[in-house]
Specification:
The chain is of the alpha/beta class. It is built from 13 helices and ten strands. Strand 8, helix 7 and strand 9 form a beta-alpha-beta unit. The longest helix has 19 residues.
């Protein structure tokens, strides 16, 4: 699959997720076989461009090419300027966010709220594509409201504007992340366009990835929430697509190795204070369903520095190894992921 002049190593893509797809996470997913990854969304509001959070999100140092920076906003001129800024910052692809359903984004008429105004969508697409000499891609949804899906018009207009690839989440904004993703319109969009179409939504296993690719004829699949705490899902999907056979789940020793390495990267990237706090949600995802993991997480959330956090995680996995725990035998449990 190509995005503009860039040939991807495969058709498995990491979805942009705010607060998740930072450089350490993108790098890890690529290590496990993702062919491409899109950054967290970065606001087009230039007054926030130099904020600490924005600078972290715009850090592409040492990242494997092609580097894709997602921008979000509602003003065409601001988005064009943001696109130029990210290209100067090292982005080789610019992605426009018209899919985020979050209230704080939609209240600013950004993200999926833009789908309510097709004229504004068209102006944004035209202006951003004209502003930069790199491929511009679009991430969007089926529409704003159920029963008023307008993706066929939006997709065709995106292709006319020169969008290089379209990633489509199989829900409306009204759905948020509820209900189940619908693939019929993704299939119809693919039949309508000549540019690459990337299917997104509820793709959480190798079997589901193959089904969606076969059913929609999409050029690629985009994996989001299913990769949280499970970056090896890309390895599993790639193996299944190539061989038709499932890979064995990683053992506890490998999960321990991956998580501790991820923590070290997060600590180095964010520093002591933010590194400790941002790591908490990742630890929660990795340990979901493991023996006594709720009790472990409650203890882990109380740790206030990276050194002790690392030791607590290491000790927990050493205890699991003593139990002889294996991933396939764990009982999945609910996880309180919204700790600070």
């Amino acid at each position: 699959m190509y995005i503009g002049p860039y040939q991807l190593s495969n058709n498995l893509i990491v979805a942009p997720m705010a607060g998740v797809t930072d450089r350490p996470f993108r790098t890890l997913c690529k290590y496990f076989g993702a062919g491409h990854a899109v950054s967290e969304m970065m606001t087009s509001d230039k007054t926030l461009r130099m904020s600490k959070k924005s600078l972290y999100r715009a850090n592409f140092d040492g990242e494997l090419a092609p580097i894709s920076a997602q921008i979000a906003g509602s003003d065409p001129r601001d988005l064009a300027e943001a696109a130029r800024y990210q290209v100067a910052n090292g982005a080789q692809i610019v992605d426009i966010n018209m899919g985020c359903p979050a209230k704080k984004v939609c209240n600013k008429l950004a993200g999926s709220a833009l789908l309510q105004d097709e004229d504004l969508v068209a102006r944004i697409l035209d202006v951003v594509v004209a502003a930069v000499d790199v491929p511009v891609t679009l991430k969007t949804r089926l529409g704003y409201l159920n029963g008023h899906e307008n993706i066929l018009r939006v997709a065709k207009r995106a292709e006319q504007a020169g969008i290089a690839a379209l990633a489509l989440h199989g829900r409306t904004r009204e759905d948020m992340y509820l209900n189940t993703a619908r693939y019929d319109l993704i299939k119809e969009v693919k039949s309508l366009l000549s540019i690459p179409v990337i299917a997104n939504g509820d793709i959480d296993s190798p079997q589901k990835a193959k089904y969606v690719l076969d059913y929609t004829a999409a050029d690629a699949v985009m994996i989001g929430r299913a990769a949280q705490g499970r970056p090896w899902i890309f390895r599993e999907i790639a193996h299944y697509l190539a061989t038709g056979k499932e890979l064995a789940a990683p053992n506890i020793q490998e999960v321990k190795h991956v998580l501790l390495g991820h923590l070290q990267e997060l600590y180095e990237f964010y520093g002591e204070y933010s590194g400790c706090r941002i790591s908490r949600k990742h630890i929660a995802w990795y340990t979901k369903g493991l023996r006594s993991s709720n009790e472990f997480r409650q203890q882990m959330y109380q740790v206030e520095n990276t050194q002790d956090q690392f030791k607590v995680v290491e000790a927990y996995f050493n205890q699991l190894l003593d139990y002889g725990e294996i991933m396939s035998d764990v009982q999945v449990e609910s996880v309180d992921l919204l700790q600070p």
